[in-house]
Design goal:
With 229 residues, the chain is of the alpha/beta class. It has a single domain (3-11, 32-212), classed as Class I glutamine amidotransferase (GATase) domain (Rossmann fold, 3-Layer(aba) Sandwich). It has helices at residues 3-11, 16-20, 45-57, 113-123, 135-141, 157-163, 189-202, 204-213, 220-223; strands at 33-38, 69-75, 81-82, 88-89, 93-94, 103-106, 128-132, 175-177, 181-184. The strands form 2 sheets. It has a 7-stranded mixed β-sheet with strand order 5-2-1-6-7-9-8, sandwiched between helices. Strands 3-4 form a two-stranded antiparallel ribbon. Strand 1, helix 3 and strand 2 form a beta-alpha-beta unit. Helix 3 (45-57) runs parallel beside helix 7 (189-202) and helix 7 packs antiparallel against helix 8. The termini are far apart.
């Protein structure tokens, strides 16, 4: 049994009818849902690649588009971006030519004012903007966290609270889902946030099948809570 068959069997009765039906986002069938990963210098590798792996591993059984997400990287220019550990990535798009995304993933990074302006612009028509780790700082600086709660990496709780005293900081959660805007804690919390977004699009069975394929045993993606010690 190949990878496609295995995931289809795991999902069981789920079909592309899920993809065509109106879901939590109030959207109907699209050929692909575009997921943009916003990259600035020093973007954290696991913050980026964790959600990337989740979205790329989502598969729906049946004919048609088995992979519902189309992934792309977006940076200020098309010059290579140096991520943590020296990994260099050539962006698919610059902010000047990137298509409108349905989902935007913002990892920890040193961003630029032009990138923040792009983020705010595309947020108007996106289904969800999600940050991972200190990517929450970028969402706040873009004005996207006004009036909604957020979380970030535990080492930066105090710094976040000091810089953004008007934003309700929720400490100790894997992620905080406020609908259009969602923020994840540090590093591997991005896996849970991405799986939660998958659940919002396609339901519990598809999200669980993706987690099972990835051998992710935790259930934090369901409600954002950490496992009991």
């Amino acid at each position: 049994m190949n990878r496609r068959e295995m995931l289809a069997a795991t999902i069981g009765g789920a079909t592309l009818a899920i993809f065509a039906s109106k879901g939590a986002f109030g959207v109907v069938q699209r050929s692909k849902f575009k997921v943009a990963f916003m990259l600035g210098e020093g973007a954290n590798v696991i913050d980026t690649m964790g959600p990337w792996e989740v979205f790329q591993d989502v598969m729906l059984p049946g004919a048609g588009h088995s992979h519902p997400f189309e992934l792309m990287t977006v940076a200020r220019t098309k010059d290579a971006v140096t991520m943590t550990g020296g990994l260099r990535v050539q962006p698919h798009y610059s902010i000047a030519d990137a298509p409108q995304p349905n989902v935007v993933v913002v990892p920890a990074q040193a961003s630029h004012s032009e990138m923040l302006a792009w983020l705010k612009k595309v947020s108007a028509d996106a289904d969800v903007i999600m940050s991972v780790c200190t990517g929450a700082f970028q969402l706040a600086r873009a004005g996207l966290l006004k009036g909604i709660p957020a979380t970030t990496h535990h080492d930066y709780w105090d710094a976040f609270a000091a810089e953004f005293p008007d934003i309700e900081l929720r400490r100790g959660l894997r992620f905080v889902d406020s609908g259009k805007i969602a923020t994840a804690g540090g590093l591997t919390s991005g896996f849970d946030m991405a799986l939660h977004v998958v659940q919002r699009y396609f339901g519990d069975e598809v999200a669980q099948a993706t987690a099972t394929y990835m051998e992710l045993d935790g259930t934090g993606w369901r409600d954002g809570r950490r496992a009991a010690a």
